[in-house]
Here is the input.
Amino acid sequence: MFKGEWNDELTTELKGLWAAGKSAGVIAREISRSAGTCITRNAVIGKVHRLKLDGRRTIEARDGHERPPVPADRKRRRPRPKLKVWKPMPKVEPPPQLTEQPPTNPPVLLFDLEKRHCRWVIGDPSAMLFCGADRAEPSSYCAFHMKQSRVRS
Ligand SMILES: [Zn+2]
Here is the structure.
């Protein structure tokens, strides 16, 4: 146990070793050798506290020396999953603001389409089904679909 006084020489050495980043245990050994007596690690820590040198870690961390750099692979270990964009099917239903009822006649196939038939595509365009109700001249659509085409455009 260190019973003697911390003279200037030992204090200066302590400060130097502490500033060099040595641990309290290492400093205790070094100073014990210089002082020719046994200085414990606790004595070193106590002196460091009294000298208010114990902020070393905080200061170094702020300067960026203490903190190890984050490995690059850790940064991009979890890639953000790509969000699947859900594309809604094109609406075939009339907008709710339309009060008129859609034609009740069955849809007409492309081959059966006549001049008087409404050209409004029913459902999937690849099915080539048309409304087939009587056209509202001069529109190529029936009254109902003529209104709907105006709403959409
Ligand atoms: Zn129609």
Summary: Strands lie at 108-109, 129-130. Confidence is low (pLDDT under 50) at residues 58-62. Residues 8-63 form one domain.
